[in-house]
Amino acid sequence: MKIILVKVFSILFFLVSSSAFACSISARVSIVGNEFPAIQTVGAGAKECKGAKVTANLTADHQKINVAGMSSQPAEYTSAIVANTSIVALLNNDLIRPLDDLVNKHGKGLKKNQLITIDGKIMAVAFMANAQHLVYREDILKKLNIDVPKTYEEMLAAAKKIRASGLIKNPVGGAYKAGWNLAQEFNNMFIGYGGSHFKGNSAEPNVNSDAGVKALKMMKSLSEYMNPDFLTHDSNATNAEFRAGNVAIMNMWGSRAATLVDADGVSMEVKNGMDIAGPMTVGGGKTPASTLFWDGWTVAKKISDGEAEATFIAMTNAIRPSILDNEDIRKQAVWLIEGYKPTDAARGVFAAAKMNTTPYPMLPYAGLMHSAIGKEIADFMQGKETADKTLSDIEDAYRASAKEKGFL
Amino acid sequence: MKHRTFFWFILPTFLAMFFFITLPIISVIVQSLHTPHENILITVENCDPFGCKKVTSIDHEATKELKNENPLGKFVGLDIYLDRGHLALEQVKQHWNNSENLLSFLSLISDLPFYKAIFFTLTFTFTVTPIMLFLGLLIALGVNAINRKLKGLIIFFFTFANDCHSFNRIYYFVLDD
After folding, report:
1. Cα–Cα distance, A174 to A171 (Å, whole number)
2. Contact yes or no for A406 and B38 at CB 8 A
3. Which pLDDT does position A359 carry in this prediction?
4. Reported ipTM exceeds the 0.85 cut
5. Would the CB atoms of A201 and B50 count as touching at under 8 Å?
6. Cα separations (Å) of A164 from A144, A171, A266, A316, B104?
């Protein structure tokens, strides 16, 4: 009896101790990714692993460096944290490896819908979903008797009222920074008006259309209620404006909204007044003017199998279900992790999913279109060009780069 | 100098210049006449948290085969030089036909990336050069008027400052678009 008890205890002790030191790795792990709260959590989770060096380079410029950083032999980065937009560049250049074997060996805690499969092969593990949706100042709308906008037309009307009331001079916010951000806002609006970026299943561009003109005009009308420097405002700058009480209604990422007013120095007025709602529609359309995203991690192809295994173990450790026991982490994102119960902050993204928001297309040439839009649209927003001219410029710029890359 | 001596004297420099300057230039010219191979596209089924979907993707195996057969890529002649990102011959022709006067023609082509860059560089050069010449002359006259004993020191430091300035200028010209 005694011996059995001792055995039971020793097994129990072994289980406890092995789970406390669950993550041990034997090769280097080097991560590159975007920087927002949820991704910082993932980066910190990977660094908990002992036995080898784990480094994380989390920066808003990740898309500019991940391809170059994974192209060398061996790759500098063993893992890139990507979204459905940014995985395409890695797939196009054949820089990430299939994970099927590693999932079988080390990925028992992963849910099936976390596994991103391309042509039947697991190429990434998703950990969160994301979408842009409405973030607003409930107190201000209430004071002026304005209903929460459900469409961009209502948002414009609300902006007009708020400006007229004298409460806030430039009440509309948005990540309209020339480049990736501005292009993303165009994509949202364009999809909201029923546009599709490419002709059928081909790589031929299709933005020079009625929906394109309408999308540009709506963006221009909104920008008239924004801070005049809107072409330099990315998500961080827009959020800073909201925290300072200079913005009352904006289209913002779910991943940013949850922790938006947690920063130091935010007035109680803004803290208590902030609220979120689902994405808006536009032009009488049913599809929201927004896009669905997942964020996940990949493992580099040009590294040793040992490094790949260590990377997989560390990244899986970073998104293990027990991280959700921490309330602060739980509300950072709409986690796709087993056992996640949505917080209040997740309402916007859930509403986006429920309203059948279009997922961002994982097409090999979508990135070229995105950068062509980002480059050409600023001229229109500054009033230097007509909408038609801008749209035909986008198509020309896209065609030139698609030809250069061998898609047309 | 005897021809023989001259030959052996110049040979190391000549070889270095041939391998590190001439050959790379030829290589760049040859490469500029080629584009990457067309990607072979296939339709595959992708699944993500939002469901499964049939989408276009690159067939890496087949594309790699093409690349191995002809590593330089596809020969396209002067296409890259003439496309919209560079000389934009087609667009320039079109703008020439569509514009009534030279001014509207210039404003139309200044929207194309290459001409936009040229106009910027020209404006920059024509603004900066006269100012630089004039300021340089003033500085030279000033230095000339200084006591002979100090002159050497001042000239030395001006040269140093000028070098720093040149690096700065080169940085902006070459690296900043």
Report:
1. 10
2. yes
3. 92
4. no
5. no
6. 10, 10, 25, 52, 40
